[in-house]
Amino acid sequence: MDTQTIQRVRNGLNDPRIGPETIALMLTRVCNFSCVYCRGGRPATKNNRTRNVADELAAEELFELLADAHELQAKEINLGGMDGEPFCRMDIADIMTQIKKHCFTGSLTSNGSFLNVKMAKMMTDCGWDILLLSLDAADASIQQTLRPAHDGKPYFAGIIEFLDFLNRNESGLRILLNVVISKLNYKQLPELVKFADNYKNIESINVLKMLNMGLENYGDLQLNRQELNEFKSILFDLNSNKLKYLGNWLGGGDEEESGLSLRGAEISPLLREEPKRCYANYYILSIDSNGDVIQCPQHQKVIEGLNIRKTPLRELWANEHLQFRRKMADYAYCFDECCTILKEQNKLIYKNITPADIEKGR
Ligand SMILES: C[S@@+](CC[C@H](N)C(=O)[O-])C[C@H]1O[C@@H](n2cnc3c(N)ncnc32)[C@H](O)[C@@H]1O
Ligand code: SF4
Ligand code: SF4
To answer: How would you class 23 by CB atoms within 10 Å of its CB: exposed for 0-12, middle for 13-18, buried for 19 or more?
Structure first.
């Protein structure tokens, strides 16, 4: 979040020609994994990939959406950050190439199971920008225990092949590792930091707090207070500037539970202040795999009646179909459950928007 984003939100309040800065596309709910802490997606087909899933937006529909997004001066297209595995789509390479043809910044979150030399070449050749790679351990057996593929096949070697290729070749691909912390891997973080240091394209390690998705085993995976303290000392000893703390480590009533005051994740003074307003939809528009507009990446609630298939993005924006944005900007009922990053961003925007800006937008 920078001043440009804030300025864009301010201008966007009364100028429908300014679209969302980022469009988050789920692409598919299909997933070939059953990670222990995730609700997961629908199981993939036999060959682990899928074609023509009835309700998914087709490539042509996505291309139209990209053309509209380009018109509306969007900057970034994010794939797969919410649910499902984007590489389960057979046409993923075409979609990524088209995104780059429009010169968007392309970011994609993946479980890594489809990575190999061919994928490294494709991503390098099309100029893909960011891969958020979900890696919970540098050890194949821990990784594949926490994040097993449905067919039980090992996949860690493919990730190494992919990373080695990038090491040997010039590639602008930036890799950010996503590591979800649980009982089974919190001691592995030093190994993961060493692993990351071996690969020039790995830029940072996002340390994610495990969220409770209502799965029965959550209690067995969650760190207890003693383990949290141990984890804290591990982190402080590591002193790596690659580590970033994302998610609900602090704030949102979570403080007591997490019991952590992680370096780099202290609650900003802004978070201590009130108004519960949300501007997320003025800078990031989230779309489900079937085209439904969803409230935000954090709270994936479908906005009734809004589907990109029935109402193309240009029309959605121009005709102010997105009234829900206004309501959220007045009072976001879900603010307390929101993640630290989105909350911080919201507060920052709120601080920089005057009541007159809001009034103008009505
Ligand atoms: C839902 S996945 C979708 C993309 C892709 N399938 C993947 O795993 O990278 C997006 C991110 O959410 C993380 N995630 C999944 N379940 C989580 C949980 N219970 N708590 C925190 N993060 C979680 C994953 O590790 C991944 O980095
Ligand atoms: S690969 Fe991603 S979407 Fe699939 S189960 Fe794991 S975390 Fe969830
Ligand atoms: S407050 Fe947070 S959870 Fe609620 S809509 Fe905004 S970004 Fe999403």
So the answer is: buried
